[in-house]
Amino acid sequence: MVETQRAKSWYWRLFGRCGRMEASFHTVTLKLAQLDIQLARTNQHLAFLQEAVQIATKSHEQYMENIVHQVAQIQIISPELNQYQDKSQQLSSKNVEQVFMDVLGRGPESVEVKNHHALLESEQALREVLICSAEFQSKLAGLSEYARDIFQRQIQIAGVTYGD
């Protein structure tokens, strides 16, 4: 009887363990399959979200392009709106001084000159005014022909029109 019990115990341990291992393996396999399905769904959702973001981005870009186009049309159609521009769009005295230094190599000669040039609509407009000035033209004329050509090409690249 003891040997029968030992035999059953040995048999049970060996095959019982295998059965439990097989059940555990089956459970793990099912869990992995479920995780794989969830991963596939998540990837689908991610793809849908990426597509939605791309569509929204294109829509936003088109919307912004339309706004820019409309603003440009308003400015082209109604140049008289410039008189109603906000005074805060004037150049700061610091900007005026910097452009004077960049173009002429000196600051404005007086507060009145600085204030007068601050009324221009942009730094580009101020550069054009200073480049067209007699002072800048005389400085340009004093340069060698090679240096003058380089300056004139840079001015043309910047889109500034001036008289020779």
Describe the model.
The chain is rod-shaped. The longest helix has 76 residues, at 2-77. The chain has six helices and no strands. By secondary structure, the chain is mainly alpha-helical. It is 77% helix and 0% strand.
Mean pLDDT: 77
Shape: rod-shaped
The termini sit apart by 123 Å
Structural class: mainly alpha
Low-confidence stretches: 75-79, 81-87
Q: What's the total number of strands?
A: 0
- Biggest sheet character: none
H-E order = HHHHHH
Number of helices, counting only DSSP H or I runs of 4 residues or more: 6
Q: What percent of residues are in strands?
A: under 5%
Helix content: over 70%
Radius of gyration: 40 Å
Summarize the structure.
This protein is mostly helical. It has helices at 2-77, 93-104, 111-118, 123-131, 134-141, 145-157. It starts with a helix and ends in a 7-residue tail after the last helix.
Lay out the secondary structure.
Layout: H1 2-77, H2 93-104, H3 111-118, H4 123-131, H5 134-141, H6 145-157
Helix pairs in contact: 2-3, 2-4
List the main descriptive attributes of the protein structure presented here.
mainly alpha, 0% strand, 6 helices, single chain, 164 residues
